[in-house]
Design a protein that fits this description.
binds MU-OXO-diiron; Ferritin; mainly alpha; elongated
Length: 178
């Protein structure tokens, strides 16, 4: 695979792993605040981010490249409010979208059709990632940061199923082991 693309995709593995770490830090904040539903939502998000990293990991090897892992930055761990957490989530997802778009532009420049097809999944995923944060922020504007509304939202977000890495990577076999 092209060396510049390899370098940029390795950097994206790092950003996805940082995203996972950041959302785990947010989960820890919510658990410390006894908001188990918000924490559950963030833990599920952390697993999704790991799956994103693994998709890049596999793709680099599929194209004959080499995966090089770098240190993961320390995430912020203290927040002032539930709203602040989701504002930061949205900001972070916008940052990730920008990087996915940069990778897409690089693939276009290199006439790298395989990478364009691979990256399309991420372009679509980022629309959903930003929308999820926006939807939660919109609800938070109605309920405010404290009281009954927050507990209702905590219950709603706690209903998010906890994914497994295997299910997200499409590696699930049925119970019979097929
Ligand atoms: Fe991997 Fe939330 O983007």
């Amino acid at each position: 695979m092209d060396k510049k693309m390899e370098k940029e995709m390795n950097a994206q593995i790092n950003r996805e792993m940082f995203s996972s770490y950041l959302y785990l830090a947010m989960a820890a904040y919510f658990d410390a605040e006894s908001l188990g539903g918000f924490a559950q939502w963030m833990k599920a998000q952390a697993i999704e981010e790991m799956a994103h990293a693994m998709k890049f990991y596999s793709y680099i090897f599929d194209r004959g490249g080499v995966v090089t892992l770098d240190a993961i930055e320390k995430p912020e761990g203290s927040f002032k409010s539930v709203q602040e957490v989701f504002e930061k989530t949205l900001d972070h997802e916008k940052f990730v979208t920008k990087n996915i778009n940069n990778l897409y532009s690089l693939a276009q420049k290199q006439n790298d059709n395989a990478s364009l097809i691979f990256l399309e999944w991420f372009v679509t995923e980022q629309v959903e990632e930003e929308k999820n944060a926006l939807d939660i922020l919109a609800k938070l504007k109605y309920v405010g940061d404290k009281g009954q509304g927050i507990l209702m939202l905590d219950k709603e977000l706690g209903a998010r199923p906890m994914p497994t890495l295997a299910s997200l990577l499409g590696q699930v076999t049925d119970e019979a082991g097929a």
